[in-house]
Amino acid sequence: MRDQETEMDTIKDTRHLRHFIGGEWTEAARGETFEVLNPLDDSLYAHAARGSAEDMNRAVTAAKSAFATYRDTLPKERERWLLRVAEIMEARKQDLLDCLIDEIGSPVQKAMFEFDKGLTMVRAAAGLCRNVRGETFPSDRPGTVSMSIREPRGVVAVITPFNVPLIKTTRLVCNALALGNTVVHLPSEMAPHLTVLFAEIVAEAGLPPAAYNVVTGFGHEVGDALTGHKDVSFVTFTGSSVIGQHIAEVCARNKTPSTLELGGKSPTVVLADADLDKAVPLAARSIFMFGGQACIGSSRFYVERPIFDDFVKRFAMIAGKVGMGDLRDPSTVIAPIISERQRARVRAHIEDAVAKGATLATGGGWEGNRCQPTLLTGVTGEMTVCREETFGPVTSIYPIESYEEGLARANDTDFGLSSAIFTRDIDKAMHFARNIGAGMCHINGPTIHDEAHVPFGGNGESGVGREGTDADMEAMTELKWITVQL
Ligand code: NAD
């Protein structure tokens, strides 16, 4: 009895997150909730409504009915709403930062980076409202004006991952809304509060009710009810390759178009003429930021033999100094790994590599839920860490005998998200950029780079399609060909 009372008190005292459907905050239809844990110490962070197919259906129905009028809102209205979203985000910056720190374990440095990026995404989306463009075509039929226009698709399903919830939410939700679509958003079950905060901001900004709807819950319980819904016209998914594959199959049944932004195993090639004073700190940034929980983190380094030992030594020295302190200390870089399941995966990748003969140049241990920055050498093809996404602060460094070997080995993967090369030789750098099987390539820069208006995305196991203002305009609108016979 006493235990039950204590439990009830705890429930009353913690955050309670609800769905946002049709402009109203609502409990789950079945009245169920689930726990959201702070990954730093697995303490209870919040309770959230546990969505079901019924909730999802209500959200899609609301979004569909809102679309009937939202599609005809004027660019100046959508622009004003989105700029207001940006203003309110600035006013609520501390709430968003606290959430990024306590809900998903972002060090404040990463939370600030994400906040700034998110703000830019919203403002860029506001600019998109006036930038929806069609074309005119010559016609072989005399007296004919021939043109294409772009129309919003309808209800867009936005599904976001835990690791950069604000960047993904601001970009994908705001681009969809800027283009005249309405949205149903399923956030990661590990980051629902961030999305609930964003929904509060959208509501305060005065967008029409039901233009933006949020259902919290477990993807495996409610995902299909969203992606397989006949009234959903487009799906944009960011998450793991396994779930992406499933979503592609569900979408195919209804012929629902989609973009898939999935996992990575992004390579960095470092040639002997590289400026190591610049390359090594950037290498460290590209794998240790947010404890390696970045899709575009570099988890493979191919380094030319003459500089291999020096590179490993310098990289290990930086790795040993990467901040692992208080998440609110600006020098902290390493984040807790988000969940016990993901921690088990990171542990298994390191243990498997070491058991099969790899060497730990540094790291390999844990401090609480945080994995130390870990560098592996002597990694071979039969080790899991060589091919699969680890999603932790773990990378492998391989010696190469030539640029050609570096390119071949960088391409020896099923993934194709980001890539990088460090060299002073522009011919090799551009050859690499043109021949790497990745959606993105950075010359003398880290694999981690994103901006609001660039075509961001990958190939193969890393996804299908691109996101960004122009890319989303193409993906989230439907082309219509119109002729006028004069
Ligand atoms: P995840 O695949 O576990 O979950 C992502 C989202 O999918 C969550 O919102 C979840 O609720 C939802 N989901 C789960 N099952 C579903 C289903 N059956 N139908 C519909 N939705 C479902 O990924 P995660 O652990 O949150 O994020 C990490 C992964 O995301 C990594 O693989 C990372 O590389 C990838 N990622 C990719 C990018 C990119 O832009 N390419 C960006 C960030 C993260």
TrEMBL record:
Pfam families to which the protein is assigned, alphabetical: Aldedh (PF00171)
Active site: E261
GO molecular function, one term: oxidoreductase activity, acting on the aldehyde or oxo group of donors, NAD or NADP as acceptor
Keyword tRNA-binding: no
Aldehyde dehydrogenase domain ranges (all copies): 25-482
Highest taxon of the lineage: Bacteria
Family statement drawn from the similarity comment of this UniProt entry: Belongs to the aldehyde dehydrogenase family.
Protein name listed in UniProt: Acyl-CoA reductase
Organism: Vannielia litorea
Taxonomic lineage of the native organism: Bacteria, Pseudomonadati, Pseudomonadota, Alphaproteobacteria, Rhodobacterales
